[in-house]
Specification:
globular; mainly alpha
């Protein structure tokens, strides 16, 4: 259970770092670039990385994921800075409804009332999370985080179905980080080329370790025989939504409307209902 807690803390730490970036001299694009460099190096040192099952399709999938990771990280940074930590955390974890829907449509997963209720509650939570800002610029960023993170999670689900083994997953993750780093470096060479400040380096190192930690501890939790994967994902999602809410209220003094609090309740309800749907499917 400690692994799940550490994964939650690392994921929430990423949002806190993005939220506080405008108050420092760190530049978001630079710290993301440094962060992925640190994630790659630390991943090679910490994770049981193996490249024995690589091929052209494996590398193509990792390249697509790496580009997506880079883009979604920018979306998360923008969302945390404009839309707040709580709703960014909600949007990133409620994206679970997208791989669930993909499983139903393309993989033939069983459909029951819990799945339908969970998906509808999740979508309602994301819509309500905009609160009274539906006409402003800030509401769209959590929505983009929701779509981007959900697409990445859905692709992982598809890759597992199409042959991505558990043993090759650490190598796949590190390779994804590598392609995200290459994407960031290419953008840096084309659009920026300014000197990377010390504050960006420091923040980037912290970001890279937090990013890797969120994945590493989640993988450790999934490897515990006594814990079903659906329990791990449900607890991880539930924890990040509530940790983001606590940090937003206690640390950043964010305030929410009735719609905002309703979105949080619906988010938790959606995660629990989807968890019940998995248990129902396994018991049949």
């Amino acid at each position: 259970m400690l692994s799940i807690l550490f994964s939650i803390l690392c994921s929430t730490g990423v949002l806190i770092l993005f939220k506080t970036t405008p108050n420092t001299k760190a530049i978001t694009a630079h710290l993301i670039l440094v962060g992925y460099a640190v994630s790659v190096l630390a991943g090679l040192l910490i994770l049981p990385v193996s490249f024995h099952h690589t091929d052209s399709l494996w590398l193509l999938a990792a390249a697509i994921e790496g580009i997506a990771f880079y883009l979604v990280f920018h979306l998360m940074a923008r969302s945390a800075q404009l839309g707040g930590i709580a709703f960014t955390g909600l949007a990133s974890k409620m994206s679970v409804v997208i791989p669930v829907t993909i499983g139903l449509v393309f993989l033939g997963d069983s459909l029951n009332m819990f799945v339908v209720a969970g998906v509808l509650l999740g979508l309602a939570a994301v819509i309500l999370s905009a609160g009274d800002k539906m006409t402003s610029d800030s509401w769209r960023w959590p929505l983009l985080v929701f779509l981007g993170t959900g697409t990445i999670d859905a692709s992982f689900k598809l890759f597992q179905v199409w042959g991505l083994s558990e043993a090759s997953f650490p190598g796949f993750i590190v390779t994804i980080f590598g392609f995200a780093l290459l994407t960031g470096a290419l953008v840096f060479m084309i659009k920026d080329r300014s000197a990377i400040r010390r504050s960006s380096l420091v923040a980037g190192v912290i970001l890279g370790l937090l990013n890797l930690g969120s994945v590493h501890f989640l993988m450790k939790a999934l490897a515990i025989p006594e814990l079903d994967s659906t329990v791990v994902y449900a607890l991880n999602s539930f924890g990040i939504v509530f940790m983001s809410l606590l940090v937003a209220v206690l640390l950043f003094k964010e305030r929410f409307s009735i719609k905002g609090y309703s979105a949080m309740v619906m988010a938790v309800a959606s995660i629990l209902v989807l968890y019940l749907s998995y248990n129902l499917t396994e018991s049949v």
